[in-house]
Give the backbone structure.
Amino acid sequence: MDFDLMSFLGKQIDELMEPVLEQNADWYKLMYELNQFANNLRFRMAINQDNVAEVVSAALLIKATNTFQSVILLSRKGLAADCGTLTRSLMETVIPLKLISQKQGFAWDFVRYEKRKRQKLINVILKDSDTFGEIANQVSEGIRDSLKKEIEEEDIPELKIEDLAKKAGMTTFYQLAYRQLSEDAHTTIWSLNRYLNTDQEGNVTELDNGPQIFGAADFRTAAYCILIALDSVNEIFKLESDSELKGFETRLLAIQL
């Protein structure tokens, strides 16, 4: 069989997934229409390059829509675990975008946070300079201390995804969806179960390399993420697309899990 030799890079995967795509036709129709709407909305955004919130939110939307498209494409190939990892990444993109639409000044905090990330990287390099080789020669304790002083003087806040989700009013979404999706992203023992088939006694009978189905509940999480992203830019750029977005939400809720 083609799949035995080539797995997901072969031609047979499309034949194997055809019944799944037909069974989930409503989901794919909604996902494709959401993607088209997202791209049309993007062209309507008049971005003021001097407005940090508009520039950052536009970039976040592009990242979100690209990740959303990746979820759809990989789901069509039966790569469910990777879809979950990408949906988690999608949530990490959407949460700050929602906060930009809600909290004036957050976009600037999001930009300035890059200094904290640089500080963390410099600390890692200084602690293990032998591993980093030539890269270690480009940093010093002086650079680290100077950057630390800037962070303190500018009062740049720490931005943790769980805290941001809480501020964005997405705590429940984070606790239920994000944590579950993190299992595949971090490769836990629980996540490895999908690759093992066992008998009633729990003995491993064979390895399972797929294809595996990205479930309807996970589709709903990805769809909600892109809806939140679209609602956020709708608010930021005053695009007056409330009715269209409400229509998508109604359709999303109407599809049975």
